[in-house]
Design goal:
Layout: H1 9-21, H2 30-33, E1 65-66, E2 72-77, H3 110-120, E3 122-129, E4 132-138, E5 149-157, E6 174-181, E7 186-191, E8 197-201, E9 208-212, E10 215-217, E11 223-231, E12 236-240, E13 250-253, E14 257-260, E15 263-266, H4 282-296, E16 304-312, E17 326-334, E18 340-349, E19 356-365, E20 376-380, E21 384-388, E22 394-399, E23 402-407, E24 413-417, E25 427-431, E26 437-442, H5 443-451
Parallel strand pairs: 7-15
Antiparallel strand pairs: 1-2, 2-11, 3-4, 4-5, 5-6, 7-8, 8-12, 9-11, 9-13, 10-11, 13-14, 16-17, 17-18, 18-19, 20-21, 21-24, 22-23, 22-25, 25-26
Amino acid sequence: MNATKHDDFEALLRSALADRAQTATTLPDPYDRVTGAVRRDRRRRAVVGSGLAAGALALAIAVAGQLPGGSTVNSDPAGRSTTSQTSAPAQGSLAPISAWPVRGNLAGDKALISAVESRFGRVLFADVHDGKAIVISVADPNQTDPVASAKFSAFVGDPGTPFPADGEDFGTWEVYDGVRPTPAAIAFAGAADARSNLLVLAAPGTSSVDISTMAIPAPDGTIQRQWQTLPMADGVSWSRTADTGGETVRFRVGTAYDGPVTIEGKLTREVTPFCMGCATGEDDVVTFRQRVASAYGYELESLQGQITYNETVPVVDFQDGTGNATRITVVDVVEPGGRHFRGYVARTEGKEQGTGSLSGGSAYPLSPKWNDKAPLVLAGENNTQVVIAPGAATIRWEAGGSHGTEQVNAKGYAVLPSPAAGLADLRVLTYDAAGTTLGEYTEAIDGEVMGDPLDLQP
């Protein structure tokens, strides 16, 4: 059951980006423009986790128009998504996953369905597409708690190949899992980091899905997405991801679901794991360069990277309760066109040299207005904020009518009291000894990008 493909979607977007690049300008004060935007919880971005997936990076395009096949592109800044031009059922009218029938051209293959369900829960979809048999299952289809998570699995194999009813050897079948709060729609991308087929499943009767394959840092520092509205055949849609794969895809079905892909398939690019006990940071340069290359399809050799900060810092969210120091390593990666990406990783250092654990971090695009001079703001001890600003002499902050000036210490960071009014409109400026502005951080822009670098959440 194959819906219409739109394989040239990415090519059209890339062409439009090239056309717009010559006219893009940086706004004089992006902070004032977005102070009314909806902000996410400040502490959400403090720890991204040890996975530090390449999905912490984004690519931007600003274009609106008509796509092949009559599909529509909508230009929505991050946090300001609108409903699709093609209406879809509201959440209340959608059947829950537990009520979905098995769909796909293999739905009648009782032996295959039974073999999968005996081990992996209820089968939702079974189909031969692009020369491969694809089966989607959910371990707990009756899960209704929106906070609790369910395990979804995708199985990819050669058509006609029996599915093993037991044992750990799956033969030629490939198995991919995704754990998510039970959504009202499901998506599977054949590859996490490369162009691949994208399957979206929604309740039977759903007529359309909005898909955005890439997130793009705009000239003002915000993240933007372009949306393509695709028809669904009885709640099923096949299309293609961008070169960045499933990790950069966001899709939405009316008001029922808006978020990332449920299951990501194979990894095709090499990415070196983070070194747990490393203190020099040199291995982090390699890792972050690989992650930028993976997320954007760059040749690794075309990316430049350097360490811009590597010190122990009193940040509270990375404490492990033992009193060990937390080392923050910051890496600046620059792509051929001059776009800067920041990667930072936090490690709790053990008492013995070379020991410790990876405790968090993030990677995200930087605003072209300040590039690598933008300060990094993290939650500190005793209800404070730690501002990492190497090369600066002082910082000035303002939030909720309060303001203050703090000195940057010899380790390149300053500590400010967490504003009583909260962090929603926090703004931090850094200055050198002569009073020249070096960089700026605004919660409304930088905080949003740090917390959701790929704009995968509404």
